[in-house]
Design goal:
The chain has 197 residues and is of the alpha/beta class. The protein has helices at residues 2-20, 33-43, 45-50, 70-86, 118-121, 131-134, 143-153; strands at 28-30, 54-59, 67-69, 93-101, 104-111, 157-163, 167-175, 191-194. The protein is globular, with a radius of gyration of 16 Å.
């Protein structure tokens, strides 16, 4: 529905603007990644079943206590899962892996979807850029931009690795403690690269 797409676009733009201007404030709570991943799985259950997608998740070991904005992290993982479903054929696999490294928690969101052509990778994260395959699906072209801004606001990083015809992996690194960016963000693209270059 075009009306819904425009509404989503306006909402995403407002969220990005608030973050970049320093007006967005995170609501830190102790988060449970099992609960968050279950929430994502249930939210996309219909689409996952319709496309016969395998959705796997693993939390390795004791990751300890992690503080973050639960709703924002759900928003990021929802954007990534939505992209994985949209840009894939039936029968693909989505996997979410969470583990700890020192004072950070690492979230790896991987799919065996279409992957991103090398010429499009450098533009990933630019507002409204959707690439050749993105033109065939519904979306605002802002999801990854907003996701990266949210991760930046947490003091984390977000990197995309992709190979066309193989799939895409998004690696998010988050500090375990409370962190909040107080200076306005300078807009920029994602750290994106292809595999096997």
């Amino acid at each position: 529905d075009e009306g819904l797409r425009l509404s989503d676009m306006v909402s995403d733009l407002l969220n990005i603007s608030r973050i970049e201007s320093g007006k967005e404030r995170l609501k830190f709570t102790e988060i449970d990644f099992r609960e968050i991943i279950d929430h994502i799985r249930k939210a996309f259950a219909e689409e996952i079943e319709r496309k016969d997608i395998t959705f796997d998740s693993i939390i390795e070991g004791d990751i300890g206590i992690v503080y973050a904005d639960r709703d924002k992290i759900i928003q990021v993982l929802s954007n990534l899962t939505d992209n994985s479903i949209k840009y894939s054929n039936s029968g693909c696999r989505i996997a979410v892996r969470v583990y700890a490294e020192d004072n950070y928690v690492i979230i790896e969101h991987t799919d065996t979807g279409w992957g991103i052509p090398e010429k499009d990778l450098q533009h990933i994260g630019e507002r409204f850029y959707r690439g050749k395959h993105g033109e065939k699906t519904k979306g605002t072209g802002l999801g990854l931009t907003l996701s990266k801004e949210i991760i930046n606001l947490h003091g984390g990083t977000m990197q995309i690795n992709s190979k066309f015809g193989v799939g895409t992996s998004v690696i998010i690194t988050l500090p375990k403690g409370r962190y909040e960016l107080t200076e306005p963000i300078i807009p920029g693209g994602l750290n994106a690269k292809g595999n096997g270059d």
